[in-house]
Amino acid sequence: MTSPVETIAQWQEEFAAIRRDIHAHPELGLEEHRTAALVAAKLREMGIEVHEGVGRTGVVGVIRNGNGRRIGLRADMDALPMEEETGLPHASTHKGRMHACGHDGHTTMLLAAARYLQQTRRFDGTVHLIFQPGEEGAGGALAMLEDGLFERFPCDEVYGLHNRPGMPVGQAGLRPGPMMAGVAFYDIVVQGRGGHGARPEATVDPVVAGSAIVGALQSVVARNVPAIERAVLSVTRFDAGNAYNVIPDRVRLGGTVRAFSRTMMELVEQRMRAIAEGVAAGFGASATLDFRVLTTPLVNDAGATEALAAAAAALGATDADFPAVMGGEDFAFMLEKVPGAYAMVGNGDTAEVHHPKFDFNDAAIPHGAGLLAAVVERQAPRV
Ligand code: NI
């Protein structure tokens, strides 16, 4: 029996063309109208039941084949607000938008897996093909969950993939437990009392208070987060005045926090609030913290990780102890509801994701698609 990778590789030209078409027409989060329509049309061509508008621009395909386990396979569809510099024939035709994270490839791999599963049906159960919008900070996973994703399309397990530049094509990497960090963005507004730069005694200088807050925030990870945990707190913005002789009335700090558990994320937020308010008060100023959690930490289920790693090992090289990364991924919200696993798949020697010269490697299509199909055949075996 040929492997799913071999079968899907026979359709390489067709799916590479689909991938390049999506690449040339990138759409931002929750605005993936063309992409969603293309996905729905391709699924219908394959004879697959299609549900559109799940979480705004999300699409779900359903393949039923017996009463076995119900497996969810998820891909993201959105692009990034940046200018493409690849100069490729299939480069973005939309100014200021680019598929720089390879979600065009993820969408295509899931379409290829859908074709394979629909045609071969070497499984017993139901496959839910989840095409998610808005992964890049637009809340697409939550939008689908709030639209009843797992109530309408119940899953016993759910799996997802992301391409990884620098990893050889055909290779996969994953780990059980926390694999990607939870992500928060924050703003701190320090309110002082502005005035003349030559008469600071008549002001409450928010620049000095804000600077002290930046310094004190460095103690949160160093002194409050236990050494065996991992977290990052970065101040990346400091917007103050714009004149040489004016002490501004207020300043705004902003940045990002990364942590591998909800508990640590809450601890960091709590300490940041205490420091911002307390330090500002010490200078006679006041401060408010606006802390927004964008994605929860991505935690792979142990059993599902074993299953996905075994499926990957049967197809090629696998690193089942792939190091956790500080980047975020909103598939994490789906993994909070349904046990599952997420893997990195090799994109070969390409530019990094989110780089203006990045392009998804079409050679990876049969490998990623084959892995998604293989985990279905493994977890919902034909009896
Ligand atoms: Ni991505």
How would you explain this protein's 3D organization?
- With 383 residues, this protein is α/β, with parallel strands linked by helices.
- The chain has 2 domains: 4-179 and 297-379, Zn peptidases (Aminopeptidase, 3-Layer(aba) Sandwich), CATH 3.40.630.10; 182-294, 2-Layer Sandwich (Alpha-Beta Plaits).
- 36% of the residues lie in helices and 25% in strands.
- The protein has 11 helices and 16 strands.
- The protein has helices at 4-9, 12-24, 33-45, 103-120, 140-146, 149-152, 206-224, 262-282, 302-315, 332-337, 365-379; strands at 49-52, 59-65, 70-76, 125-132, 157-164, 172-173, 177-180, 182-191, 195-196, 231-239, 246-247, 250-259, 286-295, 298-300, 318-319, 340-346.
- The strands form 4 sheets. The protein has an 8-stranded mixed β-sheet, sandwiched between helices. It has a 4-stranded antiparallel β-sheet with strand order 10-12-8-13, covered by helices on one side. Strands 7-14 form a two-stranded antiparallel sheet.
- Helix 7 (206-224) packs antiparallel against helix 8 (262-282).
- The relative contact order is 0.21.
